[in-house]
Amino acid sequence: MTEGSPSTRRVSPFLMAVVGVGIAVAVGSFAVLDWVLAAFVAIVVLVAVAMVVMARDWDRHDSYEEREQARALRRKEKWERNAGARARDRARWEAHQARKADRDGSR
Questions:
Q1: DSSP code of residue 61
Q2: For tag attachment on the chain, is the N or C end more exposed, with fewer CB atoms within 10 Å?
Q3: What's the CA gap between 76 and 74, in Å, rounded?
Q4: Number of domains in the chain
């Protein structure tokens, strides 16, 4: 895993405070408001908190060039790994073409 991956990164105290306040507001709204209005407030607050939590590492990802470089390396490794199979296929194709040329030449 790379440094800063989700399993090794610590949660910031500010984020924990935002989540705590959001949950408190959502729950507290039921004590103060009518249940319909409280449900609306709770949904809005919880969606906003979820968006904050999910967006906390929005800019911590590989760039397009880094992803494409990794993809190119994987493709190159696969190409090298399958070189033997391609050589066998090429030999079979050439043998087939030779047989076909002999068969067509004998007619």
A1: S
A2: C
A3: 5
A4: 2
